[in-house]
Amino acid sequence: MWHTDGGDRVLEGAEARLFAEVLWDFVTYLEVGEGDYDVGIGVFDRLTYGQKISLLSIIATGLLKPDELPHKLTAVVEGAVAAVFNQLKTVVILEIEEPDIKSQWRKMILAARRETGANKLPKASCSDEREWFTEIEALSDLILWDADYETENLYIDKRPEEAQALKDFMGVSDDYFREVPEDLTANEIKTKLDEVKTLCRSICEKAKSNSQRNL
Asked: Which DSSP helix (H) or strand (E) runs through 91?
C-alpha cells in the first residue's frame, strides 16, 4: 500500500502494468550501468547504486503489493517514485524518435489514464512530447502529494528558526530530508534486483492476461 493525497492505495490494472513495465525498464538501465545512470531527480541521482536499488525495492512493494505496509514518505522515497516517472518520459521520447523500436509506452499510458477516469486524451500516434508529459504528470500526481523532495535547498542556508518556520508553512516534517537509504552490498543488490523484476513480471503478465480476457 502507499500513502497518497486520496488515501492509502495500491496500483491496479493498466496503471499497475505501466508502472511495473517502466520500473522493470529502469532497474535494467541501472543494472547495466551499475547505478551510473541519471534521470534528473537530484535527491535520487546522487545516491549510490545500492541505495537506489534499495529505494526502488521499497516503492515496488509499496505500490504493487496490497499486503505491504505503507512506508513513511520522505524525500528519498518520493524522489525514487519521481525518478521512475522521469524514466517513463525518457522512454516515451525514445519511442517517438525511434519508431522502429516498436514499443508500446504511449498505448500503456492511455490505458492507465482511461482506467483512472481521464477522457480527453491524445491519440496513440501523437508525437508531441509535451502532450505525453502532461499525461505522465497526471499519473504521477495520483501517487505523489507534491514535489517537496526537490526543495531541500530552500532550507540549507537559512538560520534554524527560519528554516523551521518555512518547513511549517510548507507542511514539511522535520525528518523529511533526513532518511538515509540502506546501501546494499553487491549480493544484496542482486537479490533485490531479482525480487523487483519478478514482482514486475508477475504484475505485467497478470495485466496482459486480464486484458486478453476482456477482449
From this structure: helix 75-97
**At what angle are helices 186-213 and 49-64 packed, to 10 degrees?**
30
Burial of 126 (0-12, 13-18, 19+ CB in 10 A): middle
At 209, list the grid cell: 492476461
Q: Which sequence spans correspond to the domains of the chain?
A: 13-146+182-210
Report whether 176 contacts 150 (CB < 8 A).
no
Please report, to the nearest 10 degrees, the dihedral formed by the alpha carbons of residues 163, 167, 172, 178 taken in order: 10
DSSP conformation class of 68: S
Strand partners, 9: 2
The three grid cell numbers given for residue 147, joined into one nine-digit string: 514535489
The cell for 23 is: 520500473
Question: What phi, psi does 2 have (nearest 5°)?
Answer: -145, 135
Q: What is the pLDDT of residues 94-135, one digit of tens each?
A: 999 998 888 999 999 999 999 999 989 999 999 999 999 999
**Cβ pair 206, 15 in contact under 8 A:** no
Distance separating alpha carbons of residues 64 and 67, to the nearest angstrom: 9
- Express each pLDDT in 12-21 by its tens digit: 999 999 999 9
The Cα–Cα gap between 95 and 127 comes to: 9
Q: Which three cell numbers stand for residue 38?
A: 541519471
Assess contact for 64 and 143: CB atoms under 8 A. no
CB–CB of 24/203 below 8 Å?
no
Q: Is 26 exposed, middle or buried (0-12, 13-18, 19+ CB in 10 A)?
A: buried
